[in-house]
Write a structure and sequence with these properties.
The complex is a heterodimer of chains A (about 90) and B (about 425). Chain A has helices at about 40-45, 60-70, and strands at about 5-10, 30, 35. Chain A has about 90 residues and is an alpha+beta fold. A two-stranded antiparallel ribbon of chain A has the order 2-3. The longest helix of chain A has 11 residues, at about 60-70. Chain B contains 14 helices and 14 strands. Chain B has helices spanning about 30-40, 50-60, 65-80, 120-130, 150-160, 180-185, 200-205, 215-230, 250-260, 285-300, 355-365, 375, 390-395, 410-425; strands at about 1-5, 5-10, 15-20, 25-30, 65, 90, 135-140, 165-170, 190-195, 235-240, 265-270, 325, 330-335, 350. In chain B, helix 4 runs parallel beside helix 5. Classes of the chains: A alpha+beta (about 90), B alpha/beta (about 425). At the A-B interface, strand 1, strand 2, strand 3, helix 1 and helix 2 of A face strand 3, strand 4, helix 1, helix 2 and helix 3 of B.
Chain lengths: ~90, ~425
């Protein structure tokens, strides 16, 4: 059966990749009534600090990519969005 | 490959949408694809479909080999973060004293006059040294932490002498932010301030007054302006505690703060919870009321102050990690900010002695969403952090009824459609 397209509005987040020798994942926290503490790595990788955005972070859609590409030390084998070992990052 | 139980197909007017919580992806479909996929139930084998469609559905986890394996991977990633051991995340209360008397304050009965001694400060430094951690994040909390400014100053200098990676933030009512303190923020490594405003002057002053009932709004605003002038790189998060009595005042406060045009200022609403045993305070907004408020803000003002779309980050509360510690002014240890001042929730002391294993173990492991049958059946578990552990543990022990679920759950389709519309600028 031939079907038409899917147009992605939000890209899938990086996958959990099970591997040997993964690096330390970073600690984040969600503290009380939607106040989100991002990890330092996350804070420093955010390019904007705008009203209406998720606490310290810029646009969600860029977050996983920005973090992975800026902070390779937390990923064991970053080669693209789908290879980050630390799931959310 | 099987149709995932974590799919949600939504039809909105002439738009056909597919959300998947395993990958947290969102797609627009054409009508033929929508109705084709609509026929499948979770677990159904998907056969005889176009290869490119199959690849795309697989990439966004709408078709999977096994939902159980996918969920197990998410659990693994969560546990890995819980047991990460890279840094200390300390919340330090130099005092529980406060110059305000807010009627909704959760902090219990305690010795409010107590300020941290230099001996306790030294024990904190010894504790950090002994931990071997080379990275420490501190949140200064209280009471009003600036009433213990001397202690903050001394402790910071001792921390900096350790030559470790160190950052700090502070949660303050903003009243005591003098020029001297503002100028010291950089040296104290304080990168962000959280200041609470509960509305414009009259409303704020009726809720967040001095001990003697005095007004505070004008002075806090003056101090915020001085932070912007003297320390423009310091981020200022304005928290607005909302309940039914002040919720309608939020847009005016937002517009006022927005008009200041400060690049370092962010504003977020925080709904007041009832943390008493009864959990029946009529002023508190329930989940539906909170959702409706957020939707109204978007429709009427174009504001998105709480994301309509789930975050990809899935950050669980830091209390689940052994290295996240709340330190009281006498060096007593708590896990959660909510417990500060509650003697029953002290689990140890800064000398490294655990005095109440049950409290510590509860925060580390009790109320786990991956052990909760309701959570395991929920399609949002892959993107939900399980909500507030404090509430989850209370509920597990049958002394709380508050629903810990994410706000999104109760209006998922509506929130997703709003997100779709906001992306397409068709509010």
């Amino acid at each position: 059966m031939k079907l038409a397209k899917i147009k992605l509005i939000e890209q899938p987040r990086p996958q959990v990749v099970l591997g040997i020798g993964e690096t330390e994942s970073i600690l984040g926290g969600l503290v009380c009534s939607s106040y989100r503490f991002c990890d330092d790595a996350l804070k420093s990788s955010c390019t904007s600090f705008d009203n209406g955005k998720d606490s310290f972070c810029g646009d969600d859609k860029d977050l996983s990519h920005v973090l992975c590409s800026s902070h390779a030390s937390i990923c064991s084998s970053y080669k693209g969005e789908a290879t980050c070992s630390t799931y959310s990052f | 490959m099987k149709w995932s139980k974590y799919n949600r197909l939504i039809k909105s007017q002439n738009n056909y949408l597919l959300y998947n919580s395993l990958s947290n992806s969102f797609a627009e479909l054409d009508s033929d694809t929508y109705y084709f996929l609509k026929q499948f139930k979770p677990g159904d084998e998907i056969e005889k479909i176009d290869e490119s469609l199959s690849l795309e559905l697989s990439r966004i986890k709408s078709i999977v080999t096994s939902d159980d394996i996918e969920l197990a991977k998410i659990k693994y990633a969560t546990l890995k973060r819980r047991f990460s051991n890279g840094k200390l995340l300390l919340t330090i209360n130099p005092t529980l004293d406060c110059n305000f008397r807010c009627p909704y304050c959760f902090e219990g009965v305690h010795n409010k006059k107590l300020v941290m001694s230099e001996s306790t400060e030294d024990k904190i430094i010894s504790f950090i040294k002994t931990s071997g951690k080379r990275r420490v994040d501190i949140t200064w909390f209280g009471g009003e932490p600036l009433m213990g400014y001397k202690s903050i100053n001394r402790l910071t200098n001792k921390l900096l002498a350790l030559n470790i990676q160190y950052d700090a933030s502070i949660i303050t009512n903003g009243y005591l932010l003098s020029d001297k303190i503002i100028k010291s923020l950089h040296a104290l490594k304080i990168q962000s301030l959280q200041i609470t405003l509960d509305g414009h002057a009259d409303i704020h002053d009726s809720r967040r007054c001095l001990k003697n009932g005095g007004k505070t709004f004008d002075r806090i605003i003056k101090n915020i302006k001085r932070v912007n002038e003297l320390s423009p790189k310091t981020k200022i998060n304005i928290r607005v505690n909302l309940d039914k009595s002040n919720i309608d005042c939020f847009p005016a406060l937002y517009e006022f703060l927005h008009s200041l045009n400060f690049n370092n200022l962010a504003i977020f609403p925080a709904f007041v919870n009832d943390s008493t045993e009864e959990e029946a305070n009529p002023c508190v907004c329930n989940d539906i009321e909170q959702s409706m408020f957020l939707i109204r803000l978007f429709r009427e003002k174009g504001l998105i102050l709480h994301p309509f779309y789930p975050s990809s980050l899935r950050l669980e509360c830091a209390v689940r990690n052994i290295n996240a510690i709340v330190i009281g002014p006498e060096g007593e240890l708590y896990k959660c900010w909510q417990d500060v001042g509650n003697a029953d929730k002290i689990y140890g002391n800064i000398s490294g002695i655990v005095t109440n294993e049950a409290v510590l173990l509860d925060y580390l492991m009790a109320g786990d969403p991956f052990d909760d049958e309701e959570c395991k059946a929920c399609m949002l578990l892959p993107i939900c952090t399980g909500g507030c552990p404090y509430e989850r543990i209370k509920r597990e022990k049958n002394c709380g009824i508050k629903n810990p679920c994410m706000l999104l759950k109760h209006s998922l389709d509506e929130f997703l459609i709003l997100h779709y519309n906001s992306k397409n600028n068709s509010v």
